[in-house]
């Protein structure tokens, strides 16, 4: 039987794709191309999760936000400090779990982004 073997991409609607690509590149270090895209080549130990949430979840932020990016980061505390210093909206709470540390910021178009520093060994 044919089956899905992984996540091929995450796609966001944007009012100004060029401007948003620059924001992701300059604020989060995502190496966006001039066309507003990037392909990550994962190491064997890295994973990508597909998770479904109830339609009325508040986890994504604004009710109209239909998707949320979860970006793996190497140093959550430092990145959150850098984002605050650059005037990026950073949510005040962080969360620690067996999976690692989580924090959140909001891009210029109002999309909540989850930042994840995996637990050691993940």
Automatic annotation (TrEMBL):
It comes from the Bacteria. Residues 6-118 form the VOC domain. Gene3D superfamilies: 2,3-Dihydroxybiphenyl 1,2-Dioxygenase, domain 1. One of its GO terms (molecular function) is lyase activity. The keyword Endoplasmic reticulum does not apply. The keyword Lyase applies. Keywords: Lyase. Pfam families: Glyoxalase_6. This is Putative enzyme related to lactoylglutathione lyase.
